[in-house]
């Protein structure tokens, strides 16, 4: 056994905890997880059944932690893992799993297959069997701070453009701000309008906010490749920056895995609670809406539908804010089939979009989303994850579907009422006669 393989096997032994043992023991082999996985449903290949993807982890579990498995191992009646096997399994663990959680949702005995895949990736990565594209993105994150190699000067240049275009200040390293804004590399490079939208929204809401030059990147490649030590380093950068700046809330951008890594996995990774709150941008916008701080005018003219990002909705529990916000700007909105927590993945999460080897399979899997969109008859697709947005655009282009994809935050910003007085201050204006409300320009 090679040294790298031995390290991988040792890691698999270590990550097998009580939940994983109970999951393997309670699996009834019903096959429902297969019907919940778009890689299986669109390819028809049984090897993409989620529980089958966990075979290497199952084998280590049985050989090390069950009586029968130990006996069979001692008698050489069960095969040890090999480098060749793990190399072949890379497609199943990385190419055909976005960790979307739909399989976990439908499991009749409550097995969290995403948690198990996450642990299997720990051993795969340590043994050298992660995809080159994901390895490269992870190295850039550790060394540069961004999976796409974005450095602060690129962000600073974008800030100048935003300030010139909007006439608004984009605060940087401002201590004591209410909110610290995070960005993903995809927003910096592909969707710079997101930062403009944030500046406009914060201005209208009358909130103080800041970017941090030392921790602007939200994407956590450590979660995607499956190495907790790397994920911890990335989370710690954000935590240290937020606590140094003494902000009250850190806002995760339109990025699914960034939100999941920081809000739900982060405290466990660093071993303590945060001194600040973490919210997704949708949650913040919905709070502003409920408080009367988000003032919009006009409606979208086209028929819209919404793609629910898996990590934000199914794994993160953010289900209603996006629909509350859409009601403010959309007259003709139609849900996809299987909406909300049951929505089908775009096919590119969990590092799949950074994995060039996975592209052919990803485009096959996109047939499920294609069918969903065609059923709605919608003319425009709205979402709240930059990674989803890119993957959706690529899939639509591949299948020659003419449908623009837009971010919800930017759509809200486009409909903001122009006003010199922040909405927070408008609520303090005392009006003696109800009719005088008509004279206030929103």
Describe this structure in words.
By secondary structure, the protein is mostly helical. The chain contains 25 helices and seven strands. The strands form two sheets. It has a four-stranded parallel sheet. Strand 3, helix 17 (256-270) and strand 4 form a beta-alpha-beta unit. The longest helix is centred in the middle third of the chain and has 18 residues, at 228-245.
Write the layout of secondary structure elements.
Blueprint: H1 3-15, H2 18-26, H3 32-35, H4 38-43, H5 50-53, H6 55-65, H7 67-74, H8 83-95, H9 102-106, H10 113-126, H11 132-143, H12 152-166, E1 179-181, H13 185-189, H14 193-205, E2 209-210, H15 221-225, H16 228-245, E3 249-252, H17 256-270, E4 277-280, H18 281-290, E5 304-306, H19 310-313, H20 321-329, H21 359-365, H22 367-376, E6 380-383, H23 386-398, E7 405-407, H24 408-414, H25 423-426
Parallel strand pairs: 1-2, 1-3, 3-4, 5-6, 6-7
Helix pairs in contact: 1-10, 6-7, 8-10, 12-14, 14-24, 16-17, 18-20
Short description:
The protein has 442 residues and is mainly alpha-helical. The chain contains 25 helices and seven strands.
């Amino acid at each position: 056994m090679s040294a790298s393989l031995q390290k991988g096997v040792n890691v698999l032994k270590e990550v097998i905890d009580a939940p994983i043992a109970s999951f393997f023991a309670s699996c009834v082999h019903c096959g429902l997880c297969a019907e919940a996985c778009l890689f299986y449903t669109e390819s028809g290949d049984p090897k993409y059944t989620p529980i089958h993807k966990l075979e290497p982890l199952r084998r280590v579990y049985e050989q090390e932690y069950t009586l029968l498995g130990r006996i069979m191992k001692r008698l050489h009646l069960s095969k040890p893992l090999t480098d060749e096997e793990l190399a072949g399994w890379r497609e199943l663990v990385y190419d055909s799993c976005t960790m979307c959680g739909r399989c976990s949702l439908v499991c009749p005995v409550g097995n969290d297959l995403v948690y198990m895949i996450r642990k299997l990736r720990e051993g795969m990565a340590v043994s050298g069997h992660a995809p080159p594209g994901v390895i490269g993105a992870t190295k850039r994150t550790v060394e540069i701070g961004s999976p796409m190699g974005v450095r602060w000067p690129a962000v600073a240049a974008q800030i100048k453009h935003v300030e010139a275009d909007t006439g608004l200040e984009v605060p940087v390293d401002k201590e004591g701000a209410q909110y610290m804004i995070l960005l993903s590399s995809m927003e910096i490079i592909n969707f710079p309008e997101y930062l403009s939208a944030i500046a406009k929204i914060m201005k209208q809401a009358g909130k103080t906010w800041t970017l941090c030059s030392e921790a602007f990147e939200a994407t956590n490649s450590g979660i995607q490749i499956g190495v907790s030590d790397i994920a911890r380093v990335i989370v710690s950068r954000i935590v240290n920056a937020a606590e140094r700046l003494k902000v009250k809330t850190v806002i995760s951008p339109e990025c699914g895995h960034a939100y999941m890594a920081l809000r739900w996995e982060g405290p466990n990774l660093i071993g303590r609670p945060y001194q600040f709150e973490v919210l997704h941008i949708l949650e913040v916008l919905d709070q502003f809406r409920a408080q009367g701080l988000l003032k919009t005018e006009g409606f979208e003219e086209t028929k819209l539908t919404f793609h629910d990002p898996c990590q934000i909705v199914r794994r993160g529990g953010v289900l209603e804010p996006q629909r509350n916000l859409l009601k403010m700007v959309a007259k003709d909105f139609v849900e996809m089939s299987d909406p909300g927590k049951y929505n089908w993945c775009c096919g590119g999460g969990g590092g799949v979009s950074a994995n060039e080897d996975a592209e052919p399979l990803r485009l096959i899997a996109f047939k499920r989303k294609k069918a969903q969109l065609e059923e709605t008859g919608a003319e425009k697709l709205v979402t709240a994850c930059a990674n989803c947005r890119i993957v959706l655009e690529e899939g639509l282009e591949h299948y020659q579907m003419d449908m623009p994809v837009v971010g919800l935050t930017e759509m809200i910003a486009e409909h903001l009422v122009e006003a010199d007085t922040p909405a927070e201050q408008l609520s303090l204006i005392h009006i003696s006669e109800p009719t005088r409300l008509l004279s206030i320009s929103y």
